[in-house]
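About this split. The held-out portion is used to measure sequence recovery: a designer receives only the structure tokens and must propose an amino acid at every position. Recovery is the fraction of positions where the proposal matches the reference. Here is one held-out target exactly as it appears in the evaluation file.
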């Protein structure tokens, strides 16, 4: 049992170190995937388009760097900026969303990449604290299981 807990502890430790070391690559990869999701965005309910809409509605953002990122997409030439960027769903017409100057007043202007990374970094202290607590419980379990093993081994000869 101690060996199993030690193995799990080492796997979690390695994952945390790798995540910390490669955090810039993770950000770059996320940004490129978000750009790709905007490029392939469509009206049909595929998972990537739904994810973009959810991020934009939840974080009150639009595009990757700002709302003008949508102007370089095929979706913009057909329908303009998506409704998920609108500050108010009632005050957002399709004509307004096709005109970047009018859309600037009716959509969120901040980009989603900065807000997503900011949100993730602000939650890192909570994740680190929970991970540290779990690691402490694992270490206590490892020590106690080693003590139990030693106790069983030492008392084996007294039973006879």
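Reference sequence for scoring:
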């Amino acid at each position: 049992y101690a060996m199993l807990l030690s193995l799990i502890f080492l796997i979690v430790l390695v994952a945390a170190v790798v995540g910390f070391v490669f955090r810039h690559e993770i950000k770059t990869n996320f940004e490129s995937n978000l750009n790709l999701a905007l490029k392939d965005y469509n009206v049909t309910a595929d998972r990537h388009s739904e994810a973009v809409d959810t991020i934009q509605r939840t974080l009150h953002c639009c595009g990757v760097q700002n709302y003008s990122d949508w102007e370089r997409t095929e979706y913009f030439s057909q329908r303009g900026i998506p409704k998920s960027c609108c500050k108010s769903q009632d005050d957002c017409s399709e004509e307004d969303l096709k005109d970047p100057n009018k859309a600037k007043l009716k959509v969120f202007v901040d980009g989603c990449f900065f807000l997503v990374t900011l949100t993730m970094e602000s939650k890192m202290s909570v994740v680190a604290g929970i991970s540290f607590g779990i690691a402490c419980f694992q270490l206590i379990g490892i020590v106690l299981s080693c003590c139990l093993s030693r106790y069983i081994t030492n008392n084996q000869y007294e039973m006879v």
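Annotator remark: The domain at 1-158 is CATH 1.10.1450.10 (Cd81 Antigen, Extracellular Domain; Chain: A).
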